[in-house]
Write a structure and sequence with these properties.
Strand order of the largest sheet: 7-11-8-9-10
Mean pLDDT: 84
Low-confidence stretches: 159-166, 249-258, 777-783
Radius of gyration: 33 Å
Number of helices: 30
Number of domains: 5
Oligomer: single chain
Shape: globular
Structural class: alpha+beta
Number of strands: 21
Helix content: 40-55%
């Protein structure tokens, strides 16, 4: 036996591969052909040799022997008790952390469990298991040693099938979710705790990427034994803790010299958590899908220097949502679809949506539309509920948030929850808060979904349209502020929902609608100039603020220069943009892009346009200066470029390498892609950063800042200027404002200011002196009091109005940085 094993070691030592298949070697084939009793004897020697190699630091040999260990342990070998005792003793001699998988320890324990089931374990084997348990106890921060420890302890306690006769499950409380789970278990009586321990032990076996049918069947039975309500309640509270900081016993500093993020989900109990999440897909509960969706959001959130917080648990959440038949679960998938940024996460969400659609027999698009929950709303954007002499009124605002007021029987209103309601209606209040939370989560996702329809040119029958959009309690909040194209074959009109009916831009009722009338989301590209202007007038007259740019949407038509270049556009070339901000925008708008740096990382931002069998590319390249890495400010400490230069935009047929002529690109596809590129440059340009010129970088690119900060306007800026020309006359500072070319002129008491409509940057007269005003956190997204804005989503528009209001009253400015620049000291 020894000579045969030596021959195998010598033979595999001649290969550089660490992934060894024993059957590919002559000596390995001879070993696999031995009688079972001889294979057992050889395995005992093999494990002794492997453990010795591990302890001696012979990592290569230990890993190469793993293939033979696994091949033998997959066979049902006739181990004697003495041989099992020797093998377990060998495992107990492992002194290097992280090598348990190499030894085939789980298969060895399976053999011990089989022996225990057949006739119990003798004391000598139990003693060997106790020595192994003591060694495993030092590695409980890792998933595999923790699983091994659970099985070893079950054997020591005399339980041959640990999952069938549960023991009390113990785990640390160094993570927020484990603390919450532990507290819930501690409050249970013995009977309930035993049932939960059985489920938790089962969840610890959640080692695959998705559960097997057998795992699901067992878990469903255990959930029914515990009770759906109890499982749902504890799962909801546990999932709510994901993303919150834990309190580890020791702060382990990693190789880069910093402490890991305390909100991470660590491997210690990650299989347990994954199993619990899977259980969430096996129960029907009103609140659970929202908790699973929020947990997925937290798991996919990118942590600096780490990446997504816990993609394994996030994928488990996607599985749970895709296997739950409720509309609330589908709505959470829709929300995650719009929020996903990482390319691999987008792929996983798309797969989950496909799985959910497959269960219903519907297309993904139709499923998204019909499965939007009402969140308890009793009307479009409103929820009324009577509780103890008060009426709770929840209203959705134009900013897609919520307001709650309590109305007394005499009609008086109060903002806070009445004390009597708090005392007597605790469950109802929880339900209201849950509804409010879901509304705030889902509305932005529905807004983004409807905006994507602008480029899809999909139509609905009037009956479908009414139920899915205008009359839907949640979606109607967005849909009723949009313009729709209606036709019955012989007549057509663009219209909007107003005062319970459809009206045109000329204020006329559309009274010829039937259930078979076809409806499209209106796009200004296909509207006459007069029609587009009329709709902008209508929105202003009725002070309807659209949830995204529709009537004011930028239109990008092919220029003579682009016809001349033929296959590419230079319209947005030669700009300097911030890479991280650009990457974030790419992910938000559905473009595929990964960060570039000082490695072979060049890649091209690309968006798929399947409805036209096209893809579009926006060429960008990283730029950096020469010099000492640690002294440079043009790259991050990880070697990632901070800045990119922009270049061409091109279109391709799907699968083709050669670009097509821009003249052959459908006008809507061209316009929407160029609108995205305009957004990328307009938002990520260094010209938007008032402090950029102080860093001394890229001398040749200084003109890029000047070009954007005070240069010619992009199409998006022309739309902004048109909006400002209608908004400013209604402001209290209207008499101090005027327009000249690409500037809004504001006359203060101390100076006159020229605010560039494209960038929002400010020049002071006399002398065209630059005034640096750094917007505060969130400026541009906050409501501007009673100032009516015709659309949401343009932060620069809000910033310009805010600056105008500030500078018109420049004597009252208290910010020392701004005041000193204005007063010249």
């Amino acid at each position: 036996m020894t000579s045969l094993l030596d021959a195998f070691v010598e033979e595999v030592g001649k290969t550089r591969s660490l992934r060894i298949d024993a059957a590919e070697f002559a000596s390995g084939q001879r070993i696999l052909a031995l009688a079972p009793e001889e294979q057992v004897a050889l395995l005992v020697q093999l494990l002794d040799r492997q453990v010795a190699a591990i302890n001696a630091g012979g990592s290569g040999e230990a890993i190469q022997l793993k293939g033979l260990v696994g091949a033998l342990l997959r066979r049902k070998l006739p181990f004697s008790v003495a041989q099992l005792e020797h093998i377990v003793g060998s495992l107990a001699n492992v002194r290097r952390h992280g090598w348990w998988e190499t030894t085939g320890a789980e298969s060895i324990l399976r053999a011990v469990e089989g022996t225990a089931a057949a006739g119990g374990l003798p004391p000598s084997l139990c003693q060997a298991l106790e020595r192994l348990a003591a060694v495993l106890a030092d590695e409980q921060y890792k998933a595999l040693p923790r699983r091994l420890s659970t099985r070893v302890q079950a054997l020591i306690d005399g339980q041959a099938e640990p999952a069938a006769r549960p023991q009390a499950v113990t785990f640390g409380e160094d993570e927020a979710w484990t603390r919450t789970l532990g507290a819930a278990l501690s409050a249970m009586n013995d009977s309930a705790r035993a049932a939960w321990d059985a489920l938790l032990l089962h969840c610890m076996q959640a080692r695959a990427s998705k559960p097997s049918a057998h795992w699901i069947a067992d878990a469903r039975a255990m959930v029914q034994t515990i009770g759906v309500e109890s499982v749902s309640q504890i799962l909801t509270s546990v999932l709510a803790e994901i993303g919150k900081p834990g309190t580890p016993a020791h702060d382990h500093v990693n190789a880069l010299g910093y402490t890991p993020d305390r909100t991470q989900i660590h491997e210690t109990h990650s299989d347990l958590l994954r199993g619990l999440v899977w259980c969430g897909g096996l129960v029907e509960n009103e609140a659970l899908p929202s908790a699973v969706g929020s947990a997925a959001d937290a798991c996919f959130k990118k942590l600096p220097g780490i990446g997504p917080r816990a993609p394994k648990i996030g994928n488990a959440c996607l599985w749970a949502l895709s296997h739950t038949s409720s509309a609330a679960a589908i709505a959470q998938l829709s929300r995650l679809k719009t929020r996903a940024k990482h390319a691999s996460i987008k792929t996983q969400v798309a797969k989950a949506f496909g799985a959910a659609a497959g269960q219903t027999g519907m297309s993904v698009v139709d499923l998204e539309e019909v499965a939007v929950p009402t969140c308890g709303l009793t009307g479009v954007g409103e929820l009324w509920r009577e509780l103890g002499g008060f009426t709770a009124r929840l209203r959705v605002t134009e900013q897609l948030t919520t307001e709650m007021v309590w109305i007394k029987t005499d009609g008086a209103k109060q903002a806070g929850v009445p004390a009597s309601v708090k005392e007597a209606f605790e469950a109802d209040l929880r339900s209201l808060k849950q509804a409010e939370k879901e509304i705030r989560q889902l509305l932005p996702a529905q807004r983004d979904r409807l905006e994507q329809l602008l480029a899809q040119h999909k139509s609905w029958s009037m009956a479908e349209f009414r139920s899915r959009f205008v009359d839907h309690p949640l979606v109607g909040v967005v849909a009723r502020r949009l313009i729709w194209r209606l036709t019955d074959g012989s007549r057509s009109a663009s219209s909007i929902w107003h005062d319970g009916r459809f009206v045109t831009e000329q204020h006329a009722d559309v009274d010829w609608l039937r259930d078979d009338t076809r409806v499209w989301l209106w796009h200004p590209l296909y509207g006459e100039v007069a029609e587009v202007k009329a709709w902008r007038d209508w929105l202003e007259t009725h002070e309807v603020s659209q949830p995204f740019k529709q009537a004011h949407r930028e239109i990008y038509l092919l220029t003579d220069a682009e016809r001349a270049t033929g296959t590419y556009s230079n319209r947005f070339a030669a700009h300097l943009i911030k890479q991280h901000q650009f990457a974030m925008l790419c992910h938000q708008r559905g473009w595929r892009y990964t960060l570039q740096g000082e490695w072979d990382s060049a890649n091209t931002p690309t968006i798929a346009l399947p409805q036209w069998d096209l893809r579009a590319e926006f060429w960008v390249g990283g730029i950096a200066e020469e010099g000492n890495l640690l002294e440079r400010d043009d790259i991050t400490h990880r070697g990632v470029y901070k800045y990119l230069s922009t270049d061409q935009v091109r279109f391709y047929r799907t699968g083709d390498a050669a670009p097509i002529a821009l003249a052959d690109v459908p006008p809507l596809a061209f316009s929407e892609v160029m609108r995205d590129v305009d957004l990328f440059v307009g938002v990520a340009s260094v010209g938007n950063d008032p402090t950029w010129t102080d860093n001394g970088l890229f001398g040749p690119y200084r003109e890029s800042w000047d070009k954007f900060a005070f240069g010619d306007l992009f199409p998006s800026a022309f739309i902004r200027k048109a909006a400002l020309e209608r908004i400013v006359p209604r402001l209290k500072i209207a008499d101090r404002c005027s327009f000249a070319d690409r500037f809004l002129i504001v006359r203060g008491d101390l100076r006159t200011y020229r605010i560039h409509v494209g960038s929002g940057n400010v020049l002071m007269e006399p002398g065209n002196q630059y005034l640096c005003i750094v917007p505060g956190q969130g400026i541009g997204s906050r409501p501007l009091g009673r100032v009516f804005l015709p659309f949401d989503g343009d932060a620069t528009l809000s910033i310009i109005i805010s600056k105008a209001l500030l500078l018109a009253d420049d004597r009252s400015i208290t910010d020392s940085t701004i005041a000193s620049q204005i007063r010249g000291r």
